[in-house]
Design brief:
This protein folds into 2 domains: 48 residues, no CATH class; 101 residues, Four Helix Bundle (Hemerythrin (Met), subunit A), CATH 1.20.120.340. 65% of the residues lie in helices and 11% in strands. It is built from 5 helices and 3 strands; from the N terminus they run E-E-E-H-H-H-H-H. It has a 3-stranded antiparallel sheet with strand order 1-2-3. A hairpin with an 8-residue loop joins strand 1 and strand 2.
Length: 161
């Protein structure tokens, strides 16, 4: 029997509660309902990741940070699959990464976010296109570029807390 713990949290930026489940030290995040299709895809693509902080106190800020972490993980996994010539896994991991980026874009409030939100939207668009190029050209340097950009944004996001 697998032990698990399920909790529900409300976070600013999410229309309803988010379901968070811990199974064997791994975290699964899904929305109970009414999160947009892109955001739900991002959270689903985020999938399973080890975390050191409790989600009981997670804010929307932390949830976005977790998406960044999941994105970096998927890019690293795609790069590993590329090195191993595992085309199927490479495609799956790049698709998951692109879904996370689409979700991050969907979370942006372009009306209230002003220039910062518009710049992030442009950056996310660039990352999605670069991920696609990495996939079609089998180019690990493109994955490195995306990873570097996300690390910069993620670092800045951490500083906001």
């Amino acid at each position: 029997m697998i032990a698990f713990k399920k909790i529900y949290i409300s976070a600013k930026g999410f229309p309803n509660q988010v379901e968070v489940v811990f199974v064997r030290g791994c975290l699964f995040v899904s929305n109970v309902k009414e999160i947009s299709v892109k955001s739900n895809a991002a959270i689903s693509a985020y999938g399973q990741i080890h975390v050191n902080t409790g989600v009981q106190d997670a804010s929307s800020h932390r949830l976005i940070q977790m998406l960044y972490e999941g994105l970096l993980t998927r890019i690293a996994q795609a790069k590993g699959a590329m090195r191993q010539k595992d085309v199927e896994n490479k495609g799956r991991k790049i698709t998951e990464a692109m879904n996370i980026v689409a979700g991050l874009r969907d979370f942006l409030d372009l009306e209230r976010g002003g220039e910062v939100a518009a710049n992030l939207d442009s950056l996310y668009d660039y990352i999605q296109r670069t991920l696609m190029q990495a996939h079609t050209r089998n180019d690990p340097a493109k994955l490195e570029e995306c990873s570097g950009l996300i690390q910069e944004v993620s670092g800045a996001w951490k500083q906001i807390a």
